[in-house]
């Protein structure tokens, strides 16, 4: 869904409740779509609201740590790590994002 307000500038897309918002003039690649599909799977596992609570809570904690708070969120780490794997969602274990939760922050 093209939208001039979402996502914030600097982002190509944002997934809200499984609906992908894209800035005008931006086209999504298969990799972008897969990244957002991974987030949709994460949302479904956590029944949506807990996903957003954990996402924002983890981001707030990571703001106080070294590194890029956004890129170090466990949900983002899983999505970025597997966005190039076309078969990932077929073999992805449930709650796979948890293995990224305690990893050391990216610089």
Describe the structure.
- The protein has 107 residues and is mainly alpha-helical.
- Helix content is 41%, strand content 7%.
- It has four helices and two strands, in the order E-E-H-H-H-H.
- It has helices spanning 30-45, 49-63, 74-82, 88-91; strands at residues 13-16, 19-22.
- It has a two-stranded antiparallel ribbon with strand order 1-2.
- Strand 1 and strand 2 form a beta hairpin.
- Helix 1 (30-45) packs across helix 2 and helix 1 (30-45) crosses helix 3.
- The chain is globular, with a radius of gyration of 14 Å.
- The mean pLDDT is 94.
Can you give keywords for this protein?
single chain, 107 residues, mainly alpha, two-stranded antiparallel ribbon, 4 helices, 7% strand, globular
Summarize the structure.
By secondary structure, the protein is mainly alpha-helical. The protein is built from 4 helices and 2 strands, in the order E-E-H-H-H-H.
């Amino acid at each position: 869904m093209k939208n001039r307000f979402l996502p914030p500038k600097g982002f190509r897309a944002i997934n809200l409740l499984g609906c992908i918002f894209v800035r005008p003039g931006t086209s999504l690649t298969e990799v972008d779509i897969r990244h957002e599909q991974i987030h949709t799977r994460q949302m479904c596992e956590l029944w949506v609201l807990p996903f957003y609570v954990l996402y924002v809570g983890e981001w707030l904690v990571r703001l106080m740590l070294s590194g890029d708070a956004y890129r170090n969120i466990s949900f983002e780490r899983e999505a970025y790590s597997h966005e190039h794997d076309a078969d990932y969602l077929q073999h992805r274990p449930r709650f796979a994002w948890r293995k990224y939760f305690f990893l050391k922050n990216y610089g």
